[in-house]
Amino acid sequence: MERPDRTVLEFGSMDMGLDELKIFRESALKASGLDSTPMELVVNSGLSGVEHYDGLEELLERYRVHMFKPSYFHYSITWPSVARCSLYLEPDRPARIVMEGGSDVLERMKRTFTSKLGTGGKRYRLHGPVGLFLIWLVVILIASTFILAFIIGSGSADPVIIIPVIVSSSVLGMYLSMFKLKDLNPANTVSLGPRGGWIGNVILNMLTVALGIISAIIAAFILRSALG
To answer: Is the pTM of this model over 0.90?
Structure first.
């Protein structure tokens, strides 16, 4: 048998859900141009172990979709001895689709996947200390804004107020940086259940920061009053 051609498409950072997986399957079936029924394999793995499914339908039948959030995910569709396409999702690498088969099949698949799935995001570029520094910087900027408002409102720039706020906000920034580490590092997420909107998460994070800083200002004000 002649060795098939092979090509790889990278999609950057992707948040995959049930709709996206269905699009992948439908696009593969359409782009292949083959009448035969393909073989399917779904593999998901995480700290709980590795699980295999003979297709997306079996996964949905056997798994509670709202609990499906693996760390690593592999979904392959194969036409034996003809063509194969596989979707790979790993937390620390851009999503990618590996395709094998004849040049005409690969060209159709490439066009279809690119048009249906887009190019993904660029969130994975925040990996490492840059993303953590951004969170810390945002916390410090919010703290500085609250301090400035307090100084203007009270007419006092007492270091007893300013220093504890800066120190506490720095600690809060480091805590949030470590807490959000798993959200900054992964290039991809996989979840078959409903996903929360990013706007709500941002608002909750900002409220957490604001409440922490306000608490520090109140504590410093009480301390100054007690010492005065």
So the answer is: no
CB distance 22 to 36 below 8 Å = no
Q: How far apart are CA 144 and CA 141, in angstroms?
A: 5
H or E element that contains 6: strand 5-10
Enter the tokens of residue 145: 């804004």
Question: Distance between alpha carbon 3 and the CA centroid of its chain, in Å?
Answer: 36
3-state helix, strand, coil in the chain (%, to 5): 55, 20, 25
Q: Kindly state the helix (H) or strand (E) to which residue 152 belongs, with its residue range.
A: helix 129-154
Q: Are 214 and 149 in contact (CB under 8 A)?
A: no
Q: Using alpha carbons only, what angle is made at residue 219 by residues 208 and 210, rounded to the nearest 5 degrees?
A: 20
Residues 6+ apart with CB under 8 A from 199: none
Distance (Å, whole) CA 77 – CA 29: 9
How does pLDDT run across 113-167, given as a tens digit for each residue?
A: 888 887 776 654 444 556 667 667 777 777 777 777 777 777 766 666 677 677 7
Q: How do residues 88-97 score in pLDDT, each as one tens digit?
A: 988 777 888 9
- Asked if 72 and 189 count as a contact pair (C-beta separation under 8 A), the reply is no
Identify whether the C-beta of residue 85 lies closer than 8 Å to the C-beta of residue 4. Answer: no
Instruction: Quote the CA–CA distance of 77 and 90 in Å, as a whole number.
Output: 18
Q: Which pLDDT band, with edges at 50, 70 and 90, does 84 fall under?
A: very high
